[in-house]
Design a protein that fits this description.
Layout (H helix, E strand, L loop, with lengths): L1 H6 L11 H10 L9 H6 L21 H36 L11 E5 L15 E12 L2 E6 L8 E4 L3 E3 L17 E2 L8 E2 L8 E2 L8
Length: 216
Amino acid sequence: MLLRSFVHQAPAANWDDLLPQCLLAYRSSVHSSTGFSPAQLLFGHKLKLPIEIQLPPHEADEREYVPYVRSLHKRLVTAYRLAHKNHLNASNHQRECYDRGSHGPEYRVGDRVWLYRPTCPPGQSTKLYAPWQGPFTIVARRSPVTFMLRHLNRPNDNVVVAHYNHLKPANTTSSSSLETPPVVAEYEVPPEGGDAYQIPRSGTKDSASLPRGGVV
């Protein structure tokens, strides 16, 4: 997003020439989650921006290295502690905002649900990957919006923890599987042998389940 705003001010073909300006803006900006800029957390002080070149230079302070290093270490420790606290507060606030957007059916222990997993596992085709997986059974409720699930057809798998927004009801009638069993066509074999031909229904004494086009 930041690089995109820079590209809008210059030809898009030269976007790589704008990376230094983009990085400077990012490293010198205060992040809302930490309350500090990345430069402050890395160097212990704010970056000197290009605009400061036009200002009168400050007289260099003659300081001993040991006191300066100790002061820098103290500032960094304080900045890290405050950044960690601010990050936790921001994470809690973001979680509350996300949970407030959760609405829909009410789930209880024992309900069957589908689980949304948008990330395709390595080695699988993204075009053929089905993000809704399951069905799962809700085995526990950790919070109003967090559930523990167990796969209905693979009970020995590990329990999965999922958010409410990643679930949808699975309307099932079978307790074992939702997969439709394969349809086996019925073929009749002539008494004299030869190609088997498909019959509309099974149940006769001369009928048999053979692969399509099977020969006796």
